[in-house]
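1st attempt posting a full record on here, be nice pls
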Amino acid sequence: MDEITKFILELDALKLVHRKTYICGGIRVENSAEHSWHLALSSWLLAKHLNRDYSIEKLLKLALIHDLGEIDPGDTFLYSKNRNEAAKLESECVCRLANDSGNSIDELFELWEEQEYGKSPEAKFLKVVDRLIPFLHNITSNGKAWKDNDISVSQVLNAHKFIESEEPEIYSWFKQNLDHAVKKGWLKSS
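the predicted structure (as tokens):
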């Protein structure tokens, strides 16, 4: 039990990783554990709402572990210039966690890789929802994180473009709300 409880506390460190995204209404920034929980519930909800034939168990597992790699290096902001380097650092962290003597989730590293590289329908859907939630938070906070980080319309469009082919209904909603954000002046012009 000592090894397992030590590992459980190691996973708890995800609560210490702060993101640049504000929670609903812009009160404070969220941490990565909160984001993972919200991603899991939102993915489940949207998969049911859109009548997608996904394994909900797999979707939830992927959502819950998708940010574990941030425990060591921290969160890399979606619009960061160092975004391409994040996967390597996160992979090293997940490898460390997967090999921890207290870990009993045999497929931890494989699941993390699956969600990171979009190897399944569930992983592709998860990526859509993972982009949707921070966008939604920006909409409810009058673009607070976008303004704080000097984000442009083209950056947001580029980061969300893949949604158009994966989930056209969600992309249509995104475009409507992006147009609203542009009209409100929450984003720099491209």
